[in-house]
Design a protein that fits this description.
Strand content: 25-35%
Number of strands: 7
CATH superfamily: DNA gyrase/topoisomerase IV, subunit A, C-terminal
Structural class: mainly beta
Shape: globular
Radius of gyration: 15 Å
Largest sheet: 4 strands, antiparallel
Distance between the termini: 36 Å
Strand order of the largest sheet: 3-1-2-6
Order of helices and strands: EEEHEEEEH
CATH class: Mainly Beta
Number of helices: 2
Helix content: 10-25%
Oligomer: single chain
CATH topology: Neuraminidase
Length: about 120
């Protein structure tokens, strides 16, 4: 479980689940929470989707130029562009980000932005 404050320029929520599914949702699909709110659900946890392992907010620039990296329990690493993930609604289960064996699961997800790559090569 995590909480995030929406800053200016944040337009999308990107989530990934332990079974390799993910979704990119417009931030406008989520209602605002005030003090004492109980939170907003980003997705249903089912046997097909697995638990939500990561959720992050993205800008329009991130969606066009950044990549996501998934790491699985068995050590498999998958890197793909965010622009390959189609925009879905908040109640959707998501799209397949990576196919997994039955005994494997995604353990972490991170976003790789273009400017981070440029700094690493200097």
């Amino acid at each position: 479980m995590t909480a995030s404050v929406v800053s200016e320029g944040m337009k999308y929520v990107f989530t990934a689940s332990s079974r390799g599914l993910g979704k990119l949702t417009d931030i406008e699909d989520y209602r605002s929470q005030g003090r004492g709110g109980s939170g907003v659900k980003v997705g249903a946890v089912t046997a097909k989707t697995g638990k939500i392992i990561s959720a992050t907010m993205l800008t329009e620039e991130d969606r066009k130029s950044a990549d996501f990296v998934l790491v699985t329990k068995s050590g498999q690493t998958v890197r793909s562009p965010l622009k390959a993930v189609r925009l879905t609604g908040r109640v959707a289960q998501g799209v397949i980000l990576t196919k997994l064996r039955d005994d494997d699961a995604v353990t972490s997800m991170s976003i790789v932005r273009e400017r981070e790559e440029e700094e690493e090569t200097k």
